[in-house]
Automatic annotation (TrEMBL):
<feature type="transmembrane region" description="Helical">
    <location>
        <begin position="46"/>
        <end position="67"/>
    </location>
</feature>
<keyword id="KW-0966">Cell projection</keyword>
<protein>
    <submittedName>
        <fullName>TMM80 protein</fullName>
    </submittedName>
</protein>
<dbReference type="GO" id="GO:1905515">
    <property type="term" value="P:non-motile cilium assembly"/>
</dbReference>
<dbReference type="GO" id="GO:0035869">
    <property type="term" value="C:ciliary transition zone"/>
</dbReference>
<keyword id="KW-0812">Transmembrane</keyword>
<dbReference type="GO" id="GO:0016020">
    <property type="term" value="C:membrane"/>
</dbReference>
<dbReference type="Pfam" id="PF09799">
    <property type="entry name" value="Transmemb_17"/>
</dbReference>
<keyword id="KW-0472">Membrane</keyword>
<feature type="transmembrane region" description="Helical">
    <location>
        <begin position="110"/>
        <end position="134"/>
    </location>
</feature>
<keyword id="KW-1133">Transmembrane helix</keyword>
<feature type="transmembrane region" description="Helical">
    <location>
        <begin position="9"/>
        <end position="30"/>
    </location>
</feature>
<dbReference type="InterPro" id="IPR019184">
    <property type="entry name" value="Uncharacterised_TM-17"/>
</dbReference>
<feature type="transmembrane region" description="Helical">
    <location>
        <begin position="79"/>
        <end position="104"/>
    </location>
</feature>
Length: 135
């Protein structure tokens, strides 16, 4: 009953998030150099990016080793997938922050956040389907 598309999406999301993190970090550095980035906003933007990275590690990479995400998918357990789904909500909120509320939003920010939100949405739908199949 485990979902092969969900398992593939876990892998793709892991690879994409590395690109997302590096691109967002580079854009924050770029914006701080090119624009008059207020010092009061630079630190929170960087802190939220690193918090998001920690959530992704919990959501994806620990999922392969311990409780959540793909392990729940492979072992056909509802609780780990449900917990991974809850952590996804936090990642979605942080992605929306970087899409809408960060100090400067470039077109590149819009594109990479739109892709990330799309993969989160698709992954969430597949998790719900997998949980329903396991029950």
């Amino acid at each position: 009953l485990s979902s092969v598309p969900l398992q593939m999406l876990f892998y793709v999301n892991g690879i994409y998030y590395i690109f997302y993190f590096l691109a967002t970090l580079a854009m924050i550095v770029y914006k701080s150099q090119v624009f008059s980035y207020p010092d009061d906003f630079l630190a929170p933007d960087l802190a939220l990016l690193f918090i998001m990275a920690i959530l992704e590690v919990l959501r994806l990479h620990l999922a392969f080793c311990f409780l959540r995400g793909s392990k729940g998918n492979l072992t056909e357990e509802e609780a780990p997938l449900g917990l991974s789904l809850v952590i996804t909500v936090g990642s979605v909120l942080l992605s929306v922050y970087f899409l809408v509320w960060q100090t400067y939003v470039l077109q590149a920010d819009v594109i990479i956040n739109a892709v990330l939100l799309f993969t989160y949405g698709l992954e969430s739908v597949l998790k719900v389907i997998a949980i329903a199949a396991f029950v």
